[in-house]
Amino acid sequence: MQLLSVNLGRPTPSPHTDQVDGVTGIDKQPVDGPVRVAAPGPKGVAGSGLAGDAVCELRHHGGDDQAVYAFAREDLDDWEKELGRTLRNGSFGENLTTNGLNVSGALIGERWRIGSEVVLEVTSGRIPCRTFQGHLGERGWVKRFTRKGATGAYLRVIEPGEIRTGDPIEIVHLPEHGVTAAMEFRATTTERELLPRLLAAGPALHPEALAQARKYVAAQGG
């Protein structure tokens, strides 16, 4: 398992964002050299966990529980075949493009060591948005991405440090529950009957998903 590229975004004008200033950081580009990774702070105030990476829409992106976004090269390859176009590393707005790692199938609370210093923990899948659709220029993209369910994974920073292209990735902790990033995504979008199952992931789960699951269970009289 390997880190194929580290991808950073700069504020770029886009007609597809709801930001008042009309800019987005979704167009992530591979970079050379080491990149510092650390917990950025609370959502709504802080942005990316990677130094030099722009997160412009702080209402829905960034913060400690969405500090880093990872996507598998294997899933990009699948989309290349389906869309009939080349998708470079970073095309889906991911900070980390990986090889040999089932990112969407990663367990909530699963921890990865990248290189010799950084440890990250899986918190949730990624929900597509209008900016993502506009960035790719594919009609009906939000629905297509949702239907496929290969969401990639958001991660929080457990141990800060530096990472770089080519670093090995090691899974250093595997929880005993079966709640994956892809399951969390389905539960919070199209298959709400799965929400009670998310509670098995405990506090490792993204706080917003955890709140949804608890609200659903309470409404069902659980």
- The total number of structural domains is 1
Kindly name the structural category: alpha+beta
Using the alpha-carbon principal axes, give the shape.
Answer: globular
CATH architecture: Beta Barrel
N-to-C order of helices and strands: EEEEEEHEEEHHEEEHHH
Mean pLDDT: 93
CATH class: Mainly Beta
Q: Provide the helix percentage.
A: 10-25%
CATH homologous superfamily? PK beta-barrel domain-like
Distance between the termini: 41 Å
Overview of this protein structure:
The longest helix has 13 residues, at 207-219. This protein has a single domain (2-219), classed as Beta Barrel (M1 Pyruvate Kinase, Domain 3). Strands 4-1-7-6-10-9-8-12 form an 8-stranded mixed β-sheet. 23% of the residues lie in helices and 23% in strands. With 222 residues, the protein is an alpha+beta fold. It has helices at residues 73-83, 130-136, 141-148, 181-188, 195-198, 207-219; strands at 2-8, 12-13, 23-24, 29-30, 35-37, 68-72, 96-99, 111-114, 118-124, 153-159, 161-163, 169-173. It starts with a strand and ends with a helix. A hairpin with a 3-residue loop joins strand 8 and strand 9.
Secondary structure layout:
Elements: E1 2-8, E2 12-13, E3 23-24, E4 29-30, E5 35-37, E6 68-72, H1 73-83, E7 96-99, E8 111-114, E9 118-124, H2 130-136, H3 141-148, E10 153-159, E11 161-163, E12 169-173, H4 181-188, H5 195-198, H6 207-219
Parallel strand pairs: 6-7
Antiparallel strand pairs: 1-4, 1-7, 2-3, 5-11, 6-10, 8-9, 8-12, 9-10
